[in-house]
Design brief:
Strand content: 5-15%
Largest sheet: 9 strands, mixed
Structural class: alpha/beta
Order of helices and strands: EEEEEEEEHEHEHHHHHHEHEHHE
Oligomer: single chain
Radius of gyration: 21 Å
Amino acid sequence: MNRSAAPAALPLPPASGGRREGDPPGRRRWVTIEDPLPLESGVRLPGVRLAYETWGQRAADSSNAVLVLHALTGDSHAAGPAGPGHPTPGWWDALVGPGRALDTDRWFVVAPNVLGGCQGSTGPSSPGPDGMPWGSRFPYLTVRDQVAAEAALADALGIGRWAAVVGGSMGGMRALEWAVGRPERTGSLLVLAAPAAASAEQIAWGSVQIGAIRSDPGWRGGDYHDAPPGGGPHRGLGQARRIAHITYRSEPELGSRFGGAPQPGEEPGRGGRYQVESYLDHHAGKLVHRFDAGSYVALTDAMNGHDIGRGRGGTARALRRAEMPALVVGVDSDRLYPLSQQEELAALLPGADGLRLVNSPYGHDGFLIETGQVGSLVRELLPSAPTPLPSPRPSPALSKELP
């Protein structure tokens, strides 16, 4: 059997799987930053909008506000079902809600879609000043730029200081940047499966994924958003997802699940697939229907440039700024962000008391899957919260909240 005889594929993917203007908003709200956002590159990015979602009730003094930051292909939908406006269920649904680790009867939880993303925040697929998608004109971003936008969101919401900033993987990079760049606004810190700086190997993995997207003829230099279904860079984006997903899981897990077995009804010797290939195809097919290739490139570029010590005298000196209580967590089977990187963070962060482990066969994805273990760590970091009281709708001078 050849590959063309495999089970029917999903419908042709759109040029971009990102959210489009006019799509259902779901639970999202938006904040628009009135002034152009200064980026590290010297560019000033105009018209920045951040999509965000909230759960719980904010205390009058905002002392119960917790910032939750997503990973590369996540979004603001940390909790709740899939439905109109939300192509997937909440990525940390088991942790956010009444009685859960992030107990929304006590905590006011805020989850933004990252700057450069494609689920409501300003990114390559969103309209630029002329109303056309930014595309190739979208500027290079750093993690620090993304946190600067999140700080503007906090200003707009009237939150001067977070009770905690929590994130894993790319979200952990941003959480670290909050703690080092804005320690006065970060009450406590939880970093999961993230490094102080991207390593050569991590940059290499990211670079080959970017290369896969840019080598797709449908990429068109980044200006593909007007292409018909099937005409965008979905093949390159799918290949990038396959590469990434291998690094997200562990070799023992893949071996125990799939081994060298062929996909039922297919013969690898005659063009068919192995089960592990079908598994990667499945994840690639899902992503191209819900994500934007330009965002994937922009966010991977930002992750490749992550270095908490850049311009701050190195990693050790930079981390000394972050004196708040901190938990640093690694996944014992993570081959993408190995434990040695979290050990470094735990040793250098003044408020950390050693590395915590999530035991999991699932590799890097363990920080998303092992919600029982992660929830226990969240409860340890946030043992109590003030009683939430109603607070007035903010009306900051520099930003505005949109319905």
